[in-house]
Design a protein that fits this description.
This protein is an all-alpha fold and about 300 residues long. It has one domain. α5 runs antiparallel to α6, α6 packs antiparallel against α9 and α9 packs antiparallel against α11. The radius of gyration is 24 Å and the shape is elongated. The N and C termini lie far apart (about 55 Å).
């Protein structure tokens, strides 16, 4: 017969019966005397809070990882078929390709960059609003030793990792179908990630100001994202457009990223000053967007 005093003599046994199994390790650690003190835990959060936020965001993406992977795999396949077998063959037969290369080779870098940039709208609009309004999990993080700066940074880090994985899968498929030379074209992955963050950071900054859902995010999709996709040189050289429409590409992170990606993919000739200009534009846009995002997160979270 079990001694009724056993739980009193050994409180770990009583805790094991009362706590869920996923908490037993934490409970055992606490009773062992090896658990970090509250001060030490707070110090860790103050130092690594940005990564804890990023880790939480990445774990949350598991709920729709099949959609992310499926889209990243199916989208390039459809583009390769359309541009290589359909429209691409017509362009190659009638004009001999674009910029001295087959149309699929020309358009592939733009498709990779544009796909990543458009993903920023999915990851940094409603999910950011949810963190403030519906789930309010940003406030939970802000109630710890983590700062608003770390919360905003963690969001960008997590989404940047997601962009890099999406770009890598897209690149692998392009290589498999011979749409790009793998020697240097793998550098399109960080370029596309940078372009996605350069567009996503300002979007996140704006999303952090929205308190009630309405048509705002739909307007971004229709009047910013789609014009970029159609008029930023993704499907044809920007110079072939009328001068009064070329400004859409000039101010678009999609075009700047695409130009760099084309130089890496098939050797599009870009003077050094243009390479520096494209990189400076993307980095400046990312920095400005990140600073605005941090300011808006601080305004909402209080510190």
């Amino acid at each position: 017969m079990t001694d009724p005093r056993s739980s009193f003599l050994d409180p770990r046994q009583d805790s094991a019966r009362r706590l869920p199994s996923d908490l037993l390790d934490t409970n055992t650690l606490a009773y062992s005397g090896r658990a970090p003190t509250p001060a030490r835990q707070a110090a860790r959060v103050r130092r690594f809070g940005w990564w804890y936020q990023a880790e939480w965001r990445l774990l949350g993406m598991r709920a729709y990882w099949t959609s992310v992977v499926g889209t990243a795999a199916i989208t390039p396949l459809l583009y390769v078929i359309a541009m290589g077998v359909g429209l691409g063959r017509l362009v190659d037969d009638s004009a001999g390709g674009v910029d001295g290369v087959p149309y699929l080779t020309f358009v592939a870098p733009g498709l990779l960059v544009s796909t990543v940039v458009m993903s920023a709208v999915n990851e940094l609009t409603f999910p950011v609003m949810a963190g403030f309004k519906w789930g309010r999990l940003y406030y939970a993080r802000g109630a710890t030793a983590a700062s608003a700066l770390q919360v905003a940074t963690g969001e960008l880090v997590a989404v940047g990792i997601r962009f890099a994985m999406e770009a890598a899968l897209f690149w692998v498929i392009l290589v498999m179908f011979g749409a790009t030379d793998p020697t240097w074209s793998w550098l399109m992955i960080p370029v596309a990630t940078l372009a996605g963050l350069a567009f996503g950071a300002p979007v996140m900054a704006y999303a952090a100001t929205i308190e009630d859902e309405g048509f705002q995010f739909a307007m971004i999709q229709r009047f910013i994202v789609m014009p970029m996709f159609l008029f930023a040189g993704t499907f044809y050289p920007l110079a072939s457009m009328p001068i009064y429409l070329q400004w859409i590409g000039w101010i678009s992170p999609m075009w700047h990223g695409t130009q760099l990606a084309r130089a890496l993919s098939f050797g599009l000739e870009l003077p050094g000053w243009q390479v520096a200009l494209h990189l400076a534009f993307l980095l400046a846009l990312l920095a400005a967007g990140a600073l605005l995002a941090v300011r808006n997160f601080v305004a909402r979270l209080g510190r």
